[in-house]
Amino acid sequence: MPFTIHRKQFCPFKPRNLKNHEIIDNAATLLNIELHFGFQKRYSYSLRGNSHSACVKTSASSRSQGFDNGFGSMTEGYYIAPPDLDSGEQMKALVQPFCSSALCLFPGVRPSSEEYRKAVLIITDNGPDQFRALLENPALPKSTPILQLLSDESKAFAAPHHGNRLIDCLVIPVSREIFRQRVLFLCKVQKISAEHQANFATLDKQLNALSTRDPLTGLFNRRHLTTSLAEMIATAEDKDTDLALLLFNIDFFNKVNKAKGLHFGDFILNELAARLTVASRDVDSCYRFSGEDFVVVMPGADLDVAGRIAKKISRACSEQPYIYGKKKQQITISAGIASFREHRPKNHDDFITMAETALFMAKAYGRNRMYVYSPQAAKGELSPKKSLSFLRETLGHIMEKTRISVIDSLRLLAHNVAGPEHLAHISAVSHYVTLLGKQLGLPEQHVQTFQNAITLYNSFRSLLHNDLLVKPGKLSHEERKTIGDLPFKLTELTNIFDYFANERNVLLCHGEKYDGSGYPQGLKGDEIPLGARIFSIVDAVAAMNADRPYRRRLTSEEIVRELTNEAGKQFDPFLVAQLLTVIEKNRLFDLDPAVLQRAREEVFATFSAEQP
Prior knowledge:
The structure is a single chain. The chain is an alpha/beta fold. It folds into 3 domains: 200 residues, no CATH class; 161 residues, Alpha-Beta Plaits; 212 residues, Hypothetical protein af1432 (Orthogonal Bundle), CATH 1.10.3210. Helix content is 49%, strand content 15%. The protein is built from 21 helices and 17 strands. α19 packs parallel to α21. The protein is elongated.
């Protein structure tokens, strides 16, 4: 049976006003609306926090105070009464003039998902079970308010908080005007809620952009790389496709910042990001990893494809100078590449570490180049061939560039600090390095660069511990420990200057011994950088061939015997053999050639014994 409309005379009543909603802030109370519905209920609606959760608070109001609907006085009106509430058609016809988007749910009404989605208000007389099913319906938006029409107030569904949904009820019979005003009010609440949701969606989008994008370059940031790379690895596993990761770094970028200012450095980073975006493929993702480090993730790219893309990116970033006002700078980049299919990383962190390792190798081999990750190199298991060509190549990588002005300044510092004896030692070591470099066929500029390490080591050693170096007696345990800490101090000091990057490894490993008994890391054999092995042997020869406060100069025979005895222990036997040849060819010592020949044979025997 349809709703019955009754006509009834009302007593006059004193009107009350609707309290306007008040926006405070998006982290506190967003909306407070208070309505007073006279003899029905006093309702207080509160939308709080980011969830927009709505609650309905009720308090009994005396009917004897008269009818008050909050919208003005009304002495007569129509009543809605519920004989059976078995049809939604007349309710729909009743609501249609002032809320066409309301959805009336009554027995026999089965709306589609689209109708649920478009509804701004749900009006229903469902019982508790059907009402719970309605709340759990996935097609019903969480923000759509619901108005229950009940014949008994005790049957109201007790759900003041249900996500961000507002649930209200009316006990009928009820004035048609009150019903209309309640529907309009709920529609207004839904509109405000929808506006808030739209605002929050916009804010979420903006916050997401802020949290995933680098503010300077506009590229994705490291935080987003961590999330997206894990997802791309999972996709590559599921689809059995390859995935390449390129990590590159701007060479000597700190010097650019120091020489031309941070503002110009920021311009280079921004311009490089634009060039990177153009040079990479549409399917590739570009990230600013840190400072001057950038990452490109290349879905579906094997090592060959990744190598071609890396070369294209390198040309785009390096060929054209960066010009900002009157400032102009040419840059180069060093890159490391890792492949998911080829190198099988365990997770995204392992993948990044592989690319970082390859980048470090590119830096060590001279910068301005690309290097593919090698598991053997990462584990230190490479056993390079002991040949002149290998020595020439490796030493050339260590001694990359020379700064004549720095060398001259350091030599002057050594002269002022340590006096003529110190300069004599530096001169002798430099002379031996020059001769050994000639024996190995090293370019003159590489030999000069290697001499930077000699000057650094001896100058800083005299600055820090000159009192111990000239001490006539034996050093105590604490004094030897102080000298033993020198490599770490040298590394810390040279960290100040980026152009000492090549020499830093030599300085740190100068105290290492070929058999692994040295300091500070106990490296063994080829684990010790080649430059440190060369420096160790020529520095020892220069020291043995000079007087010291605690001992006399060694004879030529004693020096050769010491070199022979320490081959394979303190010194690399291959380098000892090469140095003995240098001594003979340049007649550094007054020795019988037969003595040198026997010494070489002993060294070669040691060298051959350790070969597999």
